[in-house]
Amino acid sequence: MGLAEKRLAESIKVEKIPAFEAKLKDKAGYDIKVDVDWNTFTAYDEYPLSRLDIVFDDLESFVKRICSDDMGKEALQEKMSTIHLTNSDNNDDVKMELKDNTLSLTVQLVQGSFSSQTDSQISDYVEKLL
Questions:
Q1: What is the DSSP letter of 92?
Q2: Helix, strand, or coil here: 50?
Q3: In the chain, what's the furthest Cα-to-Cα distance?
Q4: Distance CA 102, CA 105 (A)
Q5: What domain range is 87 assigned to?
Q6: Crossing angle between the packed helical segments 70-79 and 17-28, to the nearest 10 degrees
Q7: How many domains does the chain fold into?
Q8: pLDDT by residue (tens digit) across 65-109?
Q9: Confidence of residue 44 (pLDDT cuts 50, 70, 90)
């Protein structure tokens, strides 16, 4: 990881994640922690880090979908308190899992192709588990 990646990661940690967590709280009505495995994002170059905004947008939309009413808010709060993001250079690693109050998403933001879960895919998956 070079200086540019370190600076961008720090900027995301200090500025974007707190703002993103505030948006999630506004939609869900409770605190949702966002945990990023930084080593999997900064091991390459700045590109995967710059794509995190796309993932954040899909996550915000997913939370908005689930939490459209009090029943959804209560159900999500019972099952999810953390979102954990991991990046991989292998498209076959892209997956999601809701376990132990953590929604773990593995995305592939490294190469020219881009693979992550859409808001509707995340919503469909999580809603079945609530």
A1: G
A2: helix
A3: 46
A4: 9
A5: 3-129
A6: 130
A7: 1
A8: 999 999 999 999 999 999 999 999 888 899 999 999 999 999 988
A9: low
